[in-house]
Design goal:
The chain has 116 residues and is an all-alpha fold. It has six helices and no strands.
Length: 116
């Protein structure tokens, strides 16, 4: 199971309707190969390499994952849910993302009145 927000859900529904209309393919995998099979690691590597070429900068799977987790932290997403989404078995593995945004930490501390 992959959790997605409302905006992505709408985009995926539009994609699935369009895919069914244009290809008459309506079952199996969300992003199938042209033969209707699941994408393999080599397929994903090909897609990422093409994307890198179009974007003209290098990135890795790990960087995409790290950026995603960091953005969740920056948007005040619960660390326990981030851990679940990333598939970490220990919360300590996920805690590394909490130390990423020290600017945000300082801003939050500046905005709190501890002794009011």
């Amino acid at each position: 199971m992959v959790p997605v927000n409302r905006m992505l859900t709408k985009i995926l529904h539009t994609y699935l309707k369009r895919r069914k209309k244009e290809t008459n393919y309506d079952e199996g995998f969300l992003f199938p190969t042209v033969h209707g099979n699941s994408l393999k690691e080599r397929d994903m590597k090909t897609i990422i390499n093409r994307l890198r070429y179009c974007l003209t900068f290098h990135f890795t799977w790990h960087q995409l994952r790290h950026t995603f987790a960091t953005e969740l932290v920056r948007n005040n997403f619960d660390i326990f849910n981030i851990s679940r989404i990333l598939g970490h078995t220990k919360i300590d593995t996920t805690k590394i993302y909490l130390s990423v945004d020290t600017h945000r930490l300082k801003k939050q501390l500046d905005n709190i009145n501890l002794f009011a």
